[in-house]
Structures are given as C-alpha cells and as structure tokens.
C-alpha cells in the first residue's frame, strides 16, 4: 500500500471539486472535555514514507494529511505539539517505549495492537468502491453487473467482499490492483472493485478513462477500521483530548478542508 501511494501521489494535481466528505468523529466525544492542564503537550510520532499522509517534501520537511491533522489537533486544544518521524518498523515500539504520546501513521486496529495500545475514533475510513469507464458510471447499478465481469486483486479483502455479498457476479482476479484497473481501462473487464483511496490516485492519472460508480461500501470487518491515532493503553487523557479535538475539527470545517487539500480526487 505504501509503495502504491508513494508512486501515485506525486502525479496528483487535479483541482478539488464538490464531493461527499468523511464524517466519522464520535459526537459523544463532545461531552468529554479535556481537563485544563491534564495534557500540557502531545508528542506525536509518525513515519516519513506514506504519502500523502506523512512524508518528506523536496526540502526534507515533514508534510502530509496526518502531519497537518496532528498540528490542528494541538492548536484546537491550545497545547504544545511535537512531531517526530520514525521508520515504520520501529514506530509502534517507540510509542510503547514512551518515546511519544500518540502515533499518527495508519497503525492497524488489530487484536494484537489492541493489547498494547488504545485508539482514537476513526478520522478517515477506507471504503471499497466500484469503478467503471466514465460513460458507464452514470447508469451503474449492482443489479446491472449480471453477465458482466468485475476485475479485482486476487486474495484481497475486496475479493472476499464480492464472494460474500455478490457471489453471482463474475470476477476476474489479477495479481495487483494496477493490473486489475488496467484491465478495466483496456476493455478486458466491465468494472473494478477495490480500495477507494488507492484507486483515487489511479483515477487521477487516467481521467479520460474511468470514474467511481455507485456508493462507497464501509465494511470494517473486511476493510479495517480506517485511520485512527494510537496511544499507549490506558492513557485516557491523551485519547479523550484527541477525540474531543477531532469532533471540534469536523464541526469547524478544518477536517473537511484537510481532506479536500490532500485528496482532490475524493473517494467517498
């Protein structure tokens, strides 16, 4: 996933247009007001290899959606904020070893990680979506897939989704997402189904070919919980502060502004 985004992100140049926006912050977190002085600062950890979320620009500066979000969280609760990049294979251990207070780098919400960390509310879920050639997108329907072929990555969670929920639809498995999308572009398949976020970058590079079709599918049991912020287990003060800030950032439009800035080809 990281390699896919690293290659695709730097071609992303389309202007943002009106589009559906993510809305995942837990509204109940509005009632959990941070106690003044309980969290004087947050030491955020991240990585530098996951564009457009966290990476270094040509000058070496750490930038990205997650970087901006961490800064906005600290500004919203008016506390000091530091951000340090670690190699991906060391970042979780650094958090567990108290080298930081929160990890904002796409750590999976898994049973194994849940034994070591608590997680904020989801700030960006990662749905699955269908893609068709642009001329077909306006008339797309799931019922209309009968007798057609859907390309997808072999062995993926999205292949499991199709087998579970649409077993009568003919699928064409490919080794990679790029191969599956290329099959759609080249007329070897009628549609594609896969991760919407990664697909958005491919669509930006193929604007005359294809478009998202139909609605996004959110299936946490298959596609994961989405992006959250990890904190050491039991550190409720930090977690509550982050959740409260996420709700505020959604209410005041800052979270939407970040999404539109970093994802001009929206995937919701």
How would you summarize what this structure contains?
Helix content is 35%, strand content 21%.
Provide an overview of this structure.
The chain is of the alpha/beta class and 268 residues long. The chain folds into two domains: 2-125 and 225-262, 3-Layer(aba) Sandwich (D-Maltodextrin-Binding Protein, domain 2), CATH 3.40.190; 128-222, D-Maltodextrin-Binding Protein, domain 2, CATH 3.40.190.10. The chain is 35% helix and 21% strand. It has eleven helices and 13 strands. It has helices at residues 2-9, 65-76, 88-96, 111-114, 134-137, 157-165, 177-185, 196-205, 220-223, 236-251, 254-262; strands at 41-46, 49-50, 54-56, 62-63, 80-85, 102-103, 117-119, 128-133, 149-153, 170-174, 191-195, 210-217, 230-232. It has a five-stranded mixed β-sheet, with helices on both faces. A three-stranded parallel β-sheet has the order 5-1-6, with helices on both faces. The protein has a three-stranded antiparallel β-sheet with strand order 2-3-4. Strand 2 and strand 3 form a beta hairpin. The longest helix has 16 residues, at 236-251. The chain is elongated. The protein starts with a helix and ends in a 6-residue tail after the last helix. The model is unreliable at 6-17 (pLDDT under 50).
């Amino acid at each position: 996933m990281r390699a896919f985004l690293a290659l695709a992100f730097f071609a992303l140049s389309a202007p943002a247009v009106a589009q559906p926006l993510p809305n995942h912050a837990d509204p109940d977190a509005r009632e959990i007001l941070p106690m003044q002085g309980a969290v004087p600062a947050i030491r955020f950890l991240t990585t530098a290899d996951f564009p457009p979320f966290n990476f270094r620009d040509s000058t070496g500066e750490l930038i990205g959606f997650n970087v901006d979000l961490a800064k906005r969280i600290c500004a919203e609760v008016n506390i000091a904020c530091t951000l340090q990049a670690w190699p991906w294979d060391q970042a979780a251990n650094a958090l567990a070893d108290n080298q930081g207070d929160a990890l904002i780098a796409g750590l999976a919400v898994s049973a194994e990680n849940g034994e070591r960390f608590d997680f904020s509310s989801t700030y960006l879920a990662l749905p699955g979506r269908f893609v068709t050639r642009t001329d077909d997108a306006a008339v797309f329907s799931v019922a209309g897939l009968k007798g057609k072929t859907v390309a997808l990555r072999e062995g993926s969670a999205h292949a499991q989704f199709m087998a579970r929920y649409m077993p009568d639809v003919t699928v064409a498995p490919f080794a990679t997402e790029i191969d599956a999308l290329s099959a759609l572009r080249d007329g070897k398949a009628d549609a594609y189904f896969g991760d919407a976020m990664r697909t958005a970058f491919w669509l930006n590079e193929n604007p005359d070919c294809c478009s998202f079709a139909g609605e996004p599918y959110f299936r946490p049991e298959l596609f994961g919980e989405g992006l959250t912020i990890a904190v050491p287990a039991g550190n409720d003060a930090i977690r509550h502060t982050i959740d409260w800030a996420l709700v505020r950032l959604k209410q005041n439009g800052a979270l939407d502004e970040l999404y539109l800035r970093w994802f001009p080809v929206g995937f919701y």
